[in-house]
Protein backbone atom coordinates (compact mmCIF):
# COMPACT_ATOMS: atom_id res chain seq x y z
CA UNK A 1 0.00 0.00 0.00
CA UNK A 2 2.84 2.38 0.87
CA UNK A 3 4.46 1.80 -2.54
CA UNK A 4 1.15 2.48 -4.29
CA UNK A 5 0.68 5.72 -2.32
CA UNK A 6 4.18 6.87 -3.27
CA UNK A 7 3.53 5.99 -6.92
CA UNK A 8 0.21 7.84 -6.88
CA UNK A 9 1.68 10.95 -5.28
CA UNK A 10 4.53 10.91 -7.80
CA UNK A 11 2.01 10.82 -10.65
CA UNK A 12 -0.54 13.26 -9.25
CA UNK A 13 1.60 15.87 -7.53
CA UNK A 14 1.87 18.47 -10.27
CA UNK A 15 2.45 22.25 -10.17
CA UNK A 16 -1.19 23.17 -10.91
CA UNK A 17 -2.20 21.20 -7.82
CA UNK A 18 0.16 23.28 -5.70
CA UNK A 19 -1.19 26.47 -7.26
CA UNK A 20 -4.77 25.37 -6.53
CA UNK A 21 -3.86 24.51 -2.92
CA UNK A 22 -2.31 27.95 -2.39
CA UNK A 23 -5.32 29.55 -4.12
CA UNK A 24 -7.66 27.64 -1.79
CA UNK A 25 -5.84 29.11 1.20
CA UNK A 26 -6.25 32.60 -0.29
CA UNK A 27 -9.93 32.01 -1.00
CA UNK A 28 -10.48 30.83 2.58
CA UNK A 29 -8.72 33.89 3.94
CA UNK A 30 -10.90 36.10 1.75
CA UNK A 31 -14.02 34.44 3.13
CA UNK A 32 -12.96 34.92 6.75
CA UNK A 33 -11.15 38.26 6.58
CA UNK A 34 -11.46 40.09 3.23
CA UNK A 35 -9.34 43.20 2.62
CA UNK A 36 -11.19 45.43 0.18
CA UNK A 37 -8.42 48.03 0.09
CA UNK A 38 -7.97 47.84 -3.68
CA UNK A 39 -11.66 47.72 -4.57
CA UNK A 40 -12.39 47.67 -8.29
CA UNK A 41 -8.69 48.11 -9.11
CA UNK A 42 -7.95 44.79 -7.40
CA UNK A 43 -10.68 43.13 -9.45
CA UNK A 44 -9.37 44.58 -12.71
CA UNK A 45 -5.69 43.90 -12.02
CA UNK A 46 -6.43 40.47 -10.56
CA UNK A 47 -8.68 39.50 -13.45
CA UNK A 48 -6.10 40.71 -15.97
CA UNK A 49 -3.36 38.66 -14.27
CA UNK A 50 -5.52 35.53 -14.30
CA UNK A 51 -6.38 35.97 -17.99
CA UNK A 52 -2.77 36.78 -18.90
CA UNK A 53 -1.57 33.76 -16.93
CA UNK A 54 -4.01 31.46 -18.71
CA UNK A 55 -2.99 32.87 -22.10
CA UNK A 56 0.74 32.56 -21.38
CA UNK A 57 0.29 29.04 -20.06
CA UNK A 58 -1.62 27.96 -23.14
CA UNK A 59 0.87 29.56 -25.51
CA UNK A 60 3.84 28.06 -23.66
CA UNK A 61 2.20 24.61 -23.61
CA UNK A 62 1.59 24.90 -27.34
CA UNK A 63 5.37 25.14 -27.86
CA UNK A 64 5.80 21.76 -26.16
CA UNK A 65 3.08 20.25 -28.33
CA UNK A 66 4.58 21.68 -31.53
CA UNK A 67 8.02 20.39 -30.52
CA UNK A 68 6.46 16.98 -29.74
CA UNK A 69 7.92 16.78 -26.27
CA UNK A 70 6.41 16.10 -22.86
CA UNK A 71 4.75 18.78 -20.77
CA UNK A 72 4.69 16.58 -17.68
CA UNK A 73 7.28 17.26 -14.97
CA UNK A 74 9.56 14.33 -14.10
CA UNK A 75 9.51 12.98 -17.65
CA UNK A 76 12.50 13.08 -19.95
CA UNK A 77 11.95 15.51 -22.82
CA UNK A 78 13.20 14.72 -26.29
CA UNK A 79 13.56 18.36 -27.30
CA UNK A 80 14.94 21.40 -25.52
CA UNK A 81 12.30 24.07 -26.11
CA UNK A 82 14.02 27.46 -26.49
CA UNK A 83 11.78 29.35 -28.91
CA UNK A 84 8.83 31.65 -28.38
CA UNK A 85 8.26 32.50 -24.72
CA UNK A 86 11.17 30.26 -23.78
CA UNK A 87 13.52 32.94 -25.13
CA UNK A 88 12.57 35.11 -22.13
CA UNK A 89 11.93 32.60 -19.34
CA UNK A 90 12.97 28.99 -18.83
CA UNK A 91 9.68 28.43 -16.97
CA UNK A 92 6.86 30.48 -18.51
CA UNK A 93 4.21 27.97 -17.42
CA UNK A 94 5.30 28.20 -13.78
CA UNK A 95 5.49 31.96 -14.18
CA UNK A 96 1.93 31.99 -15.52
CA UNK A 97 0.76 29.84 -12.59
CA UNK A 98 2.34 32.45 -10.30
CA UNK A 99 0.51 35.25 -12.14
CA UNK A 100 -2.77 33.35 -11.80
CA UNK A 101 -2.21 32.89 -8.06
CA UNK A 102 -1.39 36.58 -7.61
CA UNK A 103 -4.40 37.54 -9.73
CA UNK A 104 -6.74 35.40 -7.63
CA UNK A 105 -5.36 36.87 -4.41
CA UNK A 106 -6.00 40.40 -5.71
CA UNK A 107 -9.41 39.55 -7.16
CA UNK A 108 -10.57 37.87 -3.95
CA UNK A 109 -9.19 40.67 -1.74
CA UNK A 110 -7.02 38.12 0.07
CA UNK A 111 -4.14 40.54 0.59
CA UNK A 112 -2.96 38.79 3.75
CA UNK A 113 -2.03 35.91 1.45
CA UNK A 114 0.36 37.92 -0.73
CA UNK A 115 3.34 36.15 0.94
CA UNK A 116 2.01 32.94 -0.60
CA UNK A 117 3.23 34.12 -4.01
CA UNK A 118 6.99 33.98 -3.28
CA UNK A 119 6.40 30.89 -1.14
CA UNK A 120 4.68 29.20 -4.11
CA UNK A 121 7.65 30.10 -6.31
CA UNK A 122 10.06 28.52 -3.81
CA UNK A 123 7.96 25.37 -3.55
CA UNK A 124 7.88 25.04 -7.34
CA UNK A 125 11.65 25.52 -7.54
CA UNK A 126 12.22 22.95 -4.80
CA UNK A 127 9.67 20.35 -5.95
CA UNK A 128 10.03 20.67 -9.73
CA UNK A 129 12.44 23.13 -11.33
CA UNK A 130 15.67 21.88 -9.76
CA UNK A 131 14.87 18.29 -10.79
CA UNK A 132 13.76 19.31 -14.27
CA UNK A 133 16.93 21.31 -14.79
CA UNK A 134 19.06 18.35 -13.63
CA UNK A 135 17.33 16.13 -16.20
CA UNK A 136 17.81 18.75 -18.92
CA UNK A 137 21.45 19.21 -17.94
CA UNK A 138 22.07 15.44 -18.07
CA UNK A 139 20.19 14.97 -21.33
CA UNK A 140 21.21 18.08 -23.31
CA UNK A 141 24.55 18.94 -21.67
CA UNK A 142 26.23 22.02 -23.13
CA UNK A 143 23.12 22.96 -25.11
CA UNK A 144 21.16 23.36 -21.87
CA UNK A 145 24.07 25.11 -20.12
CA UNK A 146 24.26 27.70 -22.93
CA UNK A 147 20.49 28.17 -22.80
CA UNK A 148 20.50 28.52 -18.99
CA UNK A 149 23.32 31.07 -19.24
CA UNK A 150 21.35 33.35 -21.56
CA UNK A 151 17.75 32.86 -20.25
CA UNK A 152 16.73 33.45 -16.65
CA UNK A 153 14.79 30.87 -14.64
CA UNK A 154 11.77 33.12 -14.02
CA UNK A 155 12.11 36.44 -15.87
TrEMBL record:
GO terms for molecular function: methyltransferase activity. It is a multi-pass membrane protein. GO terms for cellular component: endomembrane system. It comes from the Bacteria. InterPro entries: Phopholipid_MeTrfase. One of its GO terms (biological process) is methylation. This is Protein-S-isoprenylcysteine O-methyltransferase Ste14.
Amino acid sequence: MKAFAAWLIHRLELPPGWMLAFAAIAWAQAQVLPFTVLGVAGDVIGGALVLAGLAVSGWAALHFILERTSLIPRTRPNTLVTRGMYRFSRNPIYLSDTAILLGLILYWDALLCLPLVPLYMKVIEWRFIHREEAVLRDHFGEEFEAYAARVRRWL
